[in-house]
Every structure is written in structure tokens, then in C-alpha cells.
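input
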Amino acid sequence: MDLLKSGTKTPRTKLYKSESHKLCHAFPVESNEVINEAEPVALLANGTIKALSKLTGGEATSPYVGIATSFSNNNPYPSYPVSGNAEQTVMVSGFAITYGVAKTPGLTNAGYVKPTSAPITNGYTEYEPSATPTNFIALHPASTGGLVQILVK
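output
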């Protein structure tokens, strides 16, 4: 059965089906990179994203974060301005984004983290870098005691 829109076939979309309540988050795009709609993306150590298919060298271990929802190079309505870099909205592969606190000496890179055994202070869990993949991904670097957004898978 063909769906009609003003008497013509409805054009096919790249995103065939998604949950309307899917968790989305805006990320800055790595300099000189273009991310296409429906393309899988990874989070780089500096907190920017890049197409999963374009990772090279040490970037190959960057965590997968989700699927891009539009084109990065012609988004006329970014969620908020990012100077110097395009911004891309991503349907993230996770169920929540929470705030945590960076453990000494801080989180110098975005990427996999793990909660520490330190008591929760001011309502925030403390996180430290993890050498192995976990269900927690710091979305940006943070200094010691600084708040950091954590994607929970």
C-alpha cells in the first residue's frame, strides 16, 4: 500500500522507525567532518563526534553513542550555537544522561568512566576513567570536582 501526500507517493526517509520519546542529545562535530542523517557516530576524546565509519588510528576505540538525526553541514536550526564547529543531534544509545563529579585528577578525555566507591557528595556520584568499556560514558572532559554529563547505557 502506498501512502499518498498531495496525490504523489510519500518520499522514503532514512530513519524508517524510531521511538518518539528516544533520548536525543546535541554534540559538536569534529572539525572538517560531515555527518549524514541516520549515520552511526562515535564520541572522540575531546567531546566531539565523528562518523563511526571514518574513525582512524587511536580513534577506533572511541565509544559508539548513537545515530545522527539530520545532516551536520546544513542544519539551519541547531539546538544551541557552537562556535567553530557544526552541531549534530544524535539519538543516543542509552536510557539517561545524568550529572556526576570528576574524581582527582579529573577527566582529561570524554569516554568510558566508572563510578568510584567514594561517598556521594552533594547528591552526585564520583566518576573516574575506565580502561575497559562500561555502561557509563562521560560526554566531555571535566576538571577535578567539576560536573560532567554521563550517558548511561
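quick obs: The first strand starts at residue 4 and ends at 5.
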